[in-house]
Design brief:
145 residues, mainly alpha, 0% strand
C-alpha cells in the first residue's frame, strides 16, 4: 500500500493515467488497479531478493547473510546499485514497473483473465533490466518503457 501511496503523491499524473487507464485501446475487463499494485510490489520483493531477506531476518540471519541475499542475483545486484543513488529506489522501481505492466497489458491486448501472463512478462523484463546494472531509475525507465 505504501508503494501505491507513493505513486499517488509523488507521481500524480502517472497515478491518474494508470488508475483511469487513459492510454491505448482498453479491453472491457481491465486489471484491478489496487490488486495489480499489490501483486507488483510482492513480485519486486521476490525479484530483488528482499522477500528472502525478510525471511532470513526472521530466522536471525546476520548482516552478511542479509546482504548476500539481497545481492544474490543479477537483479538484486542491480537494485543494490540503484539504492546508492536513489533515496526511494524501491518506490521508484515500483512506479516504473507499474507503467511497464500497463504498457505490456496494451501490447498483449490483454483482458482480466490474462493478468498472470502479463505479470510474468513484466517480471522477465524487470529482471533483465535490473540485471543490466542500470545506473539510475531513468536508465531503468528507458530500458523498460
Amino acid at each position: 500500500m505504501d508503494c501505491l501511496l507513493y505513486l499517488a503523491t509523488e507521481a500524480p499524473a502517472t497515478w491518474r493515467r494508470l488508475l483511469k487507464k487513459l492510454d491505448g485501446e482498453r479491453s472491457e475487463w481491465e486489471y484491478p488497479f489496487a490488486v495489480a499494485g499489490l501483486n507488483l510490489a510482492f513480485m519486486l520483493l521476490d525479484v530483488i531478493g528482499l522477500h528472502q531477506h525478510a525471511a532470513a531476518a526472521g530466522r536471525g540471519g546476520g548482516a552478511e547473510r542479509k546482504a548476500a541475499i539481497v545481492t544474490g542475483t543479477a537483479a538484486g545486484r542491480g537494485f543494490a546499485g540503484l539504492t546508492s543513488c536513489e533515496p526511494f529506489a524501491f518506490e521508484e522501481l515500483f512506479v516504473v514497473t507499474f507503467e511497464c505492466l500497463d504498457r505490456e497489458w496494451l501490447q498483449q491486448r490483454a483482458s482480466y483473465m490474462e493478468f498472470n501472463s502479463v505479470v510474468k512478462a513484466v517480471r522477465a523484463s524487470v529482471e533483465r533490466a535490473l540485471g543490466s546494472q542500470p545506473k539510475s531509475i531513468s536508465a531503468m525507465r528507458q530500458t523498460l518503457l
